[in-house]
Amino acid sequence: MRRVISSWGPSGRLSPASKPWRSSALPWGWGNDSGGGSSGVPPHPQRTSRAAKKAKLMQSFADRLAALEAAAGPAAAKSHGDKPFQAAPVPGDGGEDPRNDGNDAGSQKYDLEAGFSNAKTYVYHYQGFILNGLPEKGLAKSGLKLTCKVEISRVSQEFHLIKVLSPQLEEYNGIWPRDPFTNAHKLTQQIGLCFTQPFKFHYIRGHVENIHAPKDIPVLCVNIMKGILNLLPITMKESERTYELQEAGVEGTCHTRYIIQDDRKNNRAIVSRTKDLNNCVEKVVKNIGMAYIRPCPQCSVILETLQQLTQQSQLQIHAKMPVTFLELIELSRLATRENLESVWKQSSDRQHYRYLLLSAIATAGTTNTFMFLKQIIQNEDLSFLESTLTLPLAFHLTKTDSHTLKVAADLITSHGVQKSLALRNLAYLAYGSMICRHCSVSSSCSSGILKPLHDLTTNATTEDEIVLALKAIGNAGEPASIKYIKKFLPGFSPTANALPERIYINAVLALRKIARKQAAEVQGIILQIFMDQSLPPNVRMVACVVFFETKPALPLVTAMTNFVQKKNSLQVASFVYSHMKALALGKIPQLNHLSTACRIAIRLLNPRLDELSYRYSKVIHTESYSSVYRAGAIGRLYLMNSPRSVFPSGIIAKMRGYYATSAMDIVEVAFWSQGLMDILKKQKTSFDSTHKTMKKLGKLVQGWKELPLEKPVVSAYLKLFSHEIAFGSVDKELIQKMMKYVTEPEEKEKLVKQIITLFQKGLEGKWIQPVLVGELRHIVPTCVGVPVEMGLYSISMVHAMATVNGQISLPLTGDFRLKQLLKAKVQLSANVNTSIYTDLMAVMGINTPYFQTGLEFHAKFHASMPVKFDAKIDMNKESFKFEATPVQQETELLGVRTKLYAVSRNVDEPDSVKRTPVVPEVAELDDADQQLKSSERSYRDNAKKQRMSYETGSQRQGYGLKKDPHQRKEKISCPNPFCIKILGMTICTCVTPKLCNAACLHKFAQECEINLTVKPEAARTKIQLEIKSNLGSETTELGHSEEEYEALQAKVKKPKFLKPQKLVAVLRTIQNDKKVTRFHLVVRADLHSSIPTVEAVVSEGSNRMKFCAHFSIRDSQKAEGYLTWGQECRDYKIAARFAYGHYAGYPALELKVLWPQIPTSTKAAIRRLFTLIPGIVYVLGLPQRKQKNPSQEASVVVALTSPRSCYLVFKLPDITIYAPDIMLPFSLPVSQHTEVLAMQPHPWSLFSDVPSLVLENLKAHCSVSQDSFTTFNGVRFNYGMPAGCYHILAQDCTSGLKFLVMAKKADESNQQITIHIKLANHEIDMYPSNGLVKLRLNGVQKLSENLPYSSNSGVHIRITSENGLLLQAPETGVEKLYYDGHMLKIQVPFWMTGKTCGICGRYDGEYEQEYKMPSGYVAEDTVSFAESWILPEDSCARAETRNSTVTEVCTAWSCEQI
Fold first, then answer.
1. For 875-917, how does the pLDDT look when each residue is reduced to its tens digit (9 = 90+)?
2. Are the C-beta atoms of 746 and 766 separated by less than 8 Å?
């Protein structure tokens, strides 16, 4: 709370202030004052009419004005010297002309303007004070009070003189309202020097318009004078008693309310003026990121602080390091360039000094520090790592102006930056961000500062250079760059039509920030890009993202929706629908208009778009918003699929925060991949002859074009606070090099040898990273004149020390093989200590060169994690031993400490700081317990208490940068800590009872300590975990595992194991070399019997309390398990059964839980839970039925009714609940037919077959049976092939041309087909003959008795005879091809997605564009589509095809005619 009060008049009456509404009463005189005298009221004749009374009221206000608390008044202060705080011109009174309209008695107009007489001098008493503190009484506050006399005289029609006489300043630091103000003598003398000369001001129509200060008057004094004159302005309306208007004042042009009340009894009137500071048209505020600083720019001081900081970090991070580093930043800000160069020469050869100094200079953010960094980078004094860490930080934190931007432009084009590609990319991105920061606060943003980015765009010749230029321009976000971006957008530049997709995406993303300034122009560009169907879907979907970020109006949203509805691209349509659905459900107030538009427009789209599978692009959205705090956040995941990829080829994840009317992009990460599968699936050998043959055949098909191969590239970027700070890409060459280490044995062994060598060398190092988390200042004026500041400063120090040593009993000789690792012994020892210290300081108060007063909140956070362990692995004996050595003394793992003070500093006591805890150390006594004291004695006692509560420290210009309020010898007592003992360690958490658990936030912040400590029970304590498998009879070392297991086996009566596998694990502590077993685990598994079984026993030391678990797979569709515990696992039991089958004709899973024996308390809790379920189900609107089910059993059945929906049935003891049509977040790639699993011979197929089923579902299938065709996308249609005409069914349509499959009617029967296949160096014919299926390979007949046939010449090809012919050539793109004379089935792998063509289609998921002809256009019907794929030959006579066609779009389980 901040109390700001000022008053006029002899009474000196003070009115209490409130926030954010402030009101004050103005008493007005109605008496027979005729002028002059002590009252100083300007003369005016007395009237009896209402108009006359108001005239009298206006003329007398200059003497009777008192206790005005809200801000209103002077605007522009013209000074011959320094400018006053936030001086800005203010318009006139903002109200109506307060003149009588002649309707009152006398029908005469009077001048109602306030004014002063030329012949008189008016003297007033003035008092104003500011208190900083919390609202409750009895808490400490700090503040300042000014009392003086004010002399006003009129020198012309508009000009007046004002002079301050006898100013007296008093400061306050104590318990309010108990303690008194104290005189500040030296401060009064300093301020008194400002007011030896009068000020001149304009006073027109009741308003102060200008202030003219004497030359060289300090800003503080001008602001105080503004506060005094703030009481003069007033807007009167003659005909209204209550009125509102926007009125200018010290805090800006804000909503003001006037209320006039007559007090006829006392011949007075009260005019109340209230100002809403949350409703301002132009609010006076200043936000800067600079901390309170002190004048001490000496090189010796910087070196001294740097030395102190280095000493604190030598062994372990010190609690004072964050504050010390903040001091180093402050000193760097005040240092000149010469100072920095001198310090650098003295410390650059010492590594610890060098790193910390560079971090502080980069964080300081001044022009001098930036120029210094530029110089040492150009001189190549920094290593690549130092430049990479320092330069972006300096760019992002340096205060921008025209001079700094010129220095930055010179730096990014210098040789020191240009020679490194990574440093060059970082510098250009950071320069774009610097321009954005500069132009966001500058009234004019010249085109000159954009020239380096525009030159980069103009001169870019490679794809990487163009991408860098677009990203840097996107960071800048200036409309002047639009014409440069258009050069890379198709439809806007003829040279952009053949650019890579990656450039298009970055060009669209570069418009995001520009849309904040010119939304309409960007929306037009983006909408045109979105509607260009020739562009790749990823580009159009990115355009959709940018489009909705511009918050378009309903007409534009509807236009996009209409286009999506008519143009059938399912990838784009699915993306737009899910995006609009997410926006329509949003609750963020700032997006209300957009949400409403989406709710309306989405009704135009087909709701079945929401049911599309994972194959199609989606937007996943989550958000949270609190209307109470007016804050919220949204998270979005954009999944963009390509028709040529089953998996997302583009992923963007972002988080945005909202507060009040502000929004901020917190973080955004993106990942893009193109042509990745082409690299992962490489072909070893090329076949030129077959490739040329297929190319000639393709040319015979009218309009056929090869699909261009995508340029393989993987890229990613990171954005923080809407600025892209880093990006990277991996091209084909690098990916292939990485693949060698995975696929080629020699390269793999070489890589493993290098890793082993590094492992045996060990690692030792120390790392310290200072982080300036936040530094903010928010400055607003007060009606007293002096500004009040709210500041937040937070800095962290991260520290890590590590020593790691490894040994492997394996010689790295030339004949090293990977299988030797299976017999090696590995030992690893590590000692790692990580810690973090964070200091947070928040201040609220007045900060001037003469005095500081306010509240200081200090919070310290500390966390550490010491880790020390030894691990041994014997691969031959299959054993593992892990020993951890925890802390050897009491160690604090986590600590939080807070302090809240009322603080005062002034020139009276330059070497002392007065700090008073906000909450008194001793609780206040009740009034009933107080004893009567004389007023003099009470004053002395209070003053004594106040002096005793002060803390004295070194004087600082900033708030407590050196004095650490937390450093004290005694620790806060913790009478009732919460402690637990785990593995020989005592872990305690403590919350100090001193006000920490109070309900009020300020009491929590007053003085609180929370910590988490760990202490060993013995001097030498270790924690040991030992695991062995396949022990046989080796059980003596690990405990009584055999006996425990035999007891378990006798209990469960399990069949004997055929080949049992056993694992024993023992967790123990070693205290002073004495072993104490804590936990014992025995696991036995038989995975090869007819009923695979896994059993486990867990016991705790010598305690007979045990836990036993059993799990077995009964057959391919059933599994069960149970858990028992208690004395020898006999007291309690819970069982579960799992089954797979059908429910109402749908594939279903059933899970049943039984609890025959459970503790009584658990049973009662379950009963209470079951009583709440009917009400919850009723609220959810789900159907339910009372039904008597087993009392100790609950089950759930999940039936998949479609790939995106399921049916749930819950059975509880007294109720059955039904949940139909539950939509799943994505489609499940499973088959409908459970018989496939039922026929599996081994029970493990229940789990082992799931991955293969998922992969099988990703593969595409095309089939031809007589006149029925089913494409790769699942579209079915009928078509009668003309006799003798080969049709291209499926082929690789890329330039690779890996395979080609053709079919025609068989010569001997129209019900059969003949196929011709070209792949690798083979030409294969399959045809029917005399009821048999014949095979011709490269023109040579192949008899069935000679099958199977295998060929490994380049690629593997296999042909077998299984009731037909089955061809397998997965490396060529033909996973399987089955032919029996009547039916043909072709299966291609998922890496062929979007790369096929022919009658079988593109395998791209775009089933609404399935009928694509060789030219790429979509045919009008199936006949035109199929005939377009006929291979022209002399023997081909196109017969009349059937007129009727039936087309079906099929999902996994259902088909729909379209």
1. 888 888 888 887 777 788 888 888 888 888 877 676 678 888 8
2. no
Question: Is residue 675 over pLDDT 80?
Answer: no
End-to-end CA distance of the chain: 69
**Rg of the chain over CA atoms, in angstroms?**
42
Q: Which residue has the tokens 């013995």?
A: 1018
**Token couple for 871:** 């691990």
Q: Maximum Cα–Cα distance for the chain, whole Å?
A: 135
Q: Tell how many helices (H) and how many strands (E) occur in the chain.
A: 32, 59
- Least confident range from 289-303, 1114-1128, 1428-1442: namely 289-303
C-alpha distances out from residue 405 to 402, 412, 457, 1332, Å: 5, 11, 19, 83
Q: What is the DSSP string of 1280-1302?
A: -PPTT-EEEEEEE-BTT--EEEE
Let me know: does 641 contact 616? Beta carbons within 8 Å: yes
- C-alpha closest to that of 556 among 510, 589, 513, 515: 515
Write out pLDDT tens, residues 1126-1180.
888 889 999 999 888 888 888 888 999 999 888 988 888 888 888 888 888 888 7
The answer to whether the bond into 1348 is cis (omega within 30° of 0) is yes
**Is the confidence at residue 328, as pLDDT, over 90?**
no
Has residue 931 got a pLDDT over 60?
no
Up-side HSE of residue 1454: CA atoms within 13 Å toward CB? 9
Q: Is residue 778 within 8 Å of 791, Cβ to Cβ?
A: yes
The answer, yes or no, to whether residue 99 has pLDDT greater than 60, is no
DSSP track, 287-310:
EE-PPP--S---HHHHHHHHHHHH
Cα separation values, 425 from 455, 505, 697, 726, 1223, Å: 15, 18, 47, 8, 45
CB-facing half-sphere around the CA of 1426: CA atoms within 13 A: 26
Instruction: Tell me the two tokens of residue 1189.
Output: 């089910």
**Quick one: tokens of 538?**
């990823």
Element (H, E) at 506: helix 501-509
The per-residue pLDDT for range 1325-1334, each reduced to its tens digit, is: 998 888 888 8
Measure the CA–CA gap between 624 and 658, rounded to whole angstroms.
10
d(CA 969, CA 899) in angstroms, rounded, equals 16
Residues 1399-1429 have pLDDT tens digits of: 999 888 888 888 888 888 888 888 989 988 8
Residue with tokens 């006039």: 260
HSE of 566 in the Cβ direction (CA atoms, 13 Å)? 7
List alpha helices for 985-1100, DSSP H: 1001-1006, 1041-1052
Token pair belonging to 993: 């009872």
Cβ atoms 258, 237 nearer than 8 A: yes
Nearest to 220 by CA among 902, 784, 959: 784
> Residue 1200, SS3?
strand
Please state whether the predicted TM-score (pTM) of the whole model is above 0.85.
no
In the DSSP assignment, the letter for residue 1295 is T
SS3 (DSSP) at 1417: coil
Please determine, for residue 842, whether its predicted confidence score (pLDDT) is greater than 60. yes
